[in-house]
Amino acid sequence: MMPPLSSPVEPSPINEEDTVQVHDNSASVSVASQWLQLKGQIVHLRKCYKRLFFMDLRIDSHTKHTILFRSDDARDNIPTLTDLELTKLWKRSKRGDIIDLSCFQTSEGERIKREHQVFQAVNFQVLKAWPGFDPFPSEPAMGIKDTPATASTAPKQTEPGTVDNSSNTDSSYSWRDYCKFWINSHKCLKEDCRLKHPTGDEYTRVQEMWVSERTQERKVRARIQDDPHATSSKVPHSQRAFIFGRWIVEKYGREYLNSGSGVLDIAGGKGEISLFLTHMFGIRSTVIEPNVRPDKPYQRKNLMSVIQKQMDIEAGGDGHFYRKYVSSETEPPEASQDSKTADTSVDVDLDLDEEAKKERRRIKKQQLLQFIVPRLSTLMNDQFEDQYPGVLESASILIGMHPDQATEPTVDMALKHRKPFAVVPCCVFAHENPERRLRDGGEVNTTFDFIQYLMEKESSVPMQKDFLPFDGMNIVVHQPLKQPQ
After folding, report:
1. Is residue 213's pLDDT more than 70?
2. pLDDT at 285
3. pTM value?
4. How far apart are alpha carbons 333 and 379 in whole angstroms?
5. Does 164 fall in a domain?
6. Residue by residue, what is the 3-state secondary structure of 121-156?
7. Locations of Polar residues compositional bias (predicted)?
8. 264, 351 in Cβ contact below 8 A?
9. What is the predicted pLDDT for the residue at 16?
């Protein structure tokens, strides 16, 4: 049941970062005289496209209004929103919240399409957030004259953990009911997260749908880029660290990469790229990662198996190295001789005696202990040089494959110290960097905008971009080596 709107509520404080600056095209006396103050509960939300979303606001048990928020209204003498301000409002909008807002009359075209009241607004204040762990059960959209809503407008209660898609048929909108962090990793770091966190068979089903939909989206997105690689020839997104590492070696060469202190892998996370560079290509690489991650031997073991398999394939094998007795440089001569003999048998595990099996386990354990790369738990910022003098100046190249927050600082640091770099941006956080502008004045809202923004930075050596043969965002922005005069 919806909490009574007449009950006393304490207005929640508004974060200054969430406030919206209203851009009034002129002194709109005619519009100002028609302002209407409304208070109600958000019972339905939908984003129509990038520059328009609406909410259905329940005023009382018998009255609902539709409120439009848009940045595409070209009418004169009305308050307007920028695209970035509209995005901030959308992120603040949550079903079930009780809000207070001032609204004005929307366009005639919007009014004649509906049999109910519709208004337009440019901001709102949350009076009371929807409490509890479960998301608010959305009411059906109120509809328009051509396609009226046929379902009851009464709030529909659902059992916790169940999926209710009755109120919308838009698959992208239905995902708003689920916590994407939970679906991706089975973890949610938000203590007050109000989205759904399915478990058991439902979690498996929802995750499969999520992965399938995102995979298809990546493939569609890849087709619209100027990408020379056919979709059918690309490897899965999970192999991007190996593909990027191999590209770096082919582009810059082993001799140069190993010069000085070697490669700096900025915001390298678990260090997959550096592990490939070090243990597959023989390149010295150091991971710069501020987040201290617990060492998980099973992850290193899995990655070591992947690298050994890939090395076997590169050497002309079938990749079934795990069925052979893998020798080590630290292996005793007699064990090495045994391993050469054992290599001829694919069923060697059945023939090994207990001593040989014990020796094999010892070798694998020693290999795993050696399967590491140097790590520095710090940020790549202006204080880095004071903490680790000489590391940056002696580095051969700065690399990174990561989201927005670390990409631009990596490029800026490389340009400042005249170091070559190679980065693969995977996404952009426009709301965190509203000041970014392209040379033509355009906003940086998409990953492609971000790539163009990076390439427009002043550089002594012109930047270039290449496409890597894996699914998803596969553009690498890089600065080639300066050619001798």
Report:
1. yes
2. 93
3. 0.56
4. 45
5. no
6. ECCCEEEECCCCCCCCCCCCCCECCCCECCCCCCCC
7. 149-171
8. no
9. 42
Residues 263 and 323 in one domain: no
Does residue 384 share a domain with residue 262?
yes
365 in the same domain as 314? yes
Give which of 298, 318, 254, 261 is closest to 280, Cα–Cα.
254
Residue 434 neighbours by CB under 8 Å, 6+ apart: 84, 443
Q: What pLDDT shows up at residue 255?
A: 95
3-state secondary structure of 102: strand
Q: In whole angstroms, what is the distance from residue 434 CA to residue 445 CA? A: 9
Ramachandran area for residue 211 (φ above 0: left; ψ -120 to 50: alpha; else beta): alpha
Distance CA 74, CA 220 (A): 32
Residue 53: domain span: 16-128
Average pLDDT over residues 384-412: 88
Statement to judge: residues 285 and 425 lie in one domain: yes
Express each pLDDT in 242-268 by its tens digit. Answer: 899 999 999 999 999 999 999 999 998
Position 465: which residue type? Answer: K
Domain end marker among 351, 370, 389:
370
Q: How many CB atoms lie within 10 A of CB 91?
A: 10
Per residue in 462-483, pLDDT (tens digit) is: 899 999 988 888 899 999 887 6
Assign residue 165 a region (left: φ > 0; alpha: ψ between -120 and 50; beta: otherwise): alpha
472: left (phi over 0), alpha (psi -120 to 50) or beta: left
Kind of pairing, strands 285-288 and 262-266?
parallel
| pLDDT number for residue 30 | 46
Structure tokens at 7: 């009950």
Least confident of 167-181, 227-241, 401-415: 167-181
Residues 403 and 341 in one domain: no
Q: Are residues 279 and 411 in the same domain?
A: yes
d(CA 461, CA 310): 34
